[in-house]
TrEMBL record:
Record key words, sorted: Cell membrane, Hydrolase, Membrane, Metal-binding, Metalloprotease, Protease, Transmembrane, Transmembrane helix, Zinc
Segments crossing the lipid bilayer: 60-80, 108-128
GO biological process, one term: proteolysis
Name listed for the protein in its UniProt record: Protease HtpX-like protein
Native organism taxonomy: Bacteria, Bacteria division Kazan-3B-28
Organism: candidate division Kazan bacterium GW2011_GWB1_45_10
One Pfam entry name: Peptidase_M48
Cell compartment(s), UniProt: Cell membrane
C-alpha cells in the first residue's frame, strides 16, 4: 500500500487536480474546489487514484530527472555555439593556404553548432512531451487498477472535457502536473503535438477498453 498523501484544496471553479512529491513518503495531492463540487464520489475516487498512480510510479521524480537531462543537452548546445564562434588558429603562423583551410573548417563547425543550437531545444522539448503523454496513459491505467473501476475516471475526464472554466493559476511551466491540461484547447494538430497530455478522447477510449 501507499502512505496516505496530504490533501490540499485550491479555491478555483475550474475542475482539476495534481500531485507533487519526489516519492510516496513525501507526496501531496491538490484538488480544486471545482473538481470536488462537480464530480460524483466515484468519479473523484478515479481522479485521486490517477494522482496516486503518479506518486506510485515516481512520475514527479522522473519528470525532474528528464527536465534536468534535457536542460544539460540545451546547455551543451549553447556551449558548442559559443565555442565555435571563438575558434581561431593557434601556435605557429600559418600560410595563406592553411589559413583558408582553417577558416573553412571553422565556418563549417560554426554552421553545425548553430544548427545544433537551434534544434537541440526543440528535440529536447518534444522528447519531454512524449514522455509526459505516456506517463498520463500509465497513470490512467494504474489508477483504474487501484479502483477496479475505469469507468469512474472515464466519466470524470468527460466532465473535465466539457467544463468551460479555465484554471486561474495555470501557467505553461506547471501544465504537465495536472490531470488535464489547464489551458483550453482548439484541437489543432500542432497543439496536440505540443501538448503535455494525450487527447482526452483517446484517454477515455483507452480506459473503456480495459477489462477489469
Amino acid at each position: 500500500g501507499l502512505p496516505l498523501p496530504k490533501i490540499f484544496l485550491i479555491t478555483d471553479p475550474a475542475p482539476n487536480a495534481f500531485a507533487v512529491g519526489r516519492d510516496p513518503q513525501h507526496a501531496s495531492i491538490a484538488l480544486t474546489t471545482g473538481i470536488v463540487e462537480k464530480l460524483t464520489k466515484v468519479e473523484l475516487e478515479g481522479v485521486i487514484a490517477h494522482e496516486l498512480a503518479h506518486v506510485k510510479n515516481y512520475d514527479i521524480l522522473l519528470s525532474t530527472v528528464v527536465v534536468t537531462l534535457l536542460g544539460v543537452i540545451v546547455l551543451i548546445a549553447d556551449w558548442m555555439g559559443r565555442a565555435s564562434m571563438g575558434i581561431s588558429p593557434r601556435g605557429a603562423k600559418a600560410s595563406f593556404g592553411q589559413r583558408d583551410d582553417n577558416q573553412q573548417n571553422n565556418g563549417a563547425l560554426a554552421i553545425i553548432a548553430v544548427i545544433f543550437l537551434i534544434l537541440a531545444p526543440i528535440f529536447a522539448r518534444l522528447i519531454y512531451l512524449a514522455i509526459s503523454r505516456q506517463r498520463e496513459y500509465l497513470a490512467d491505467a494504474s489508477g483504474a487498477l487501484l479502483t477496479r473501476y475505469p469507468e469512474g475516471l472515464a466519466e470524470a475526464l468527460e466532465k473535465l472535457t466539457a467544463d468551460r472554466h479555465q484554471l486561474r493559476l495555470a501557467n505553461r511551466a506547471t501544465a504537465g502536473l495536472y490531470i488535464v491540461n489547464p489551458f483550453k484547447k482548439t484541437g489543432t494538430i500542432i497543439e496536440e503535438a505540443l501538448s503535455t497530455h494525450p487527447p482526452l478522447a483517446k484517454r477515455i477510449a483507452a480506459l473503456r477498453s480495459m477489462n477489469l
